Amino acid sequence: MHISEGVLSAPVLAAGAALTTVGVAVGVRRMVSEQVPKVAVLASAFFVASLIHVPVGPSSVHLVLNGVTGLLLGWAAFPAILVGASLHALLFQFGGLTSLGVNTFTMACPALICHYAFGPLLRRGTRRAMQAAGFAAGAAAIALSGLLICLCLVLTGESFAEVAGLTLAAHLPVMVVEGLLTASCVTFLGRVKPELLGLGRRGAEGSGGAGPEGD
Question: Which of 67, 116, 187, 215 could form a disulfide with 141 if both were Cys (CB 3.0 to 4.6 A apart)?
Answer without folding.
Answer: 67
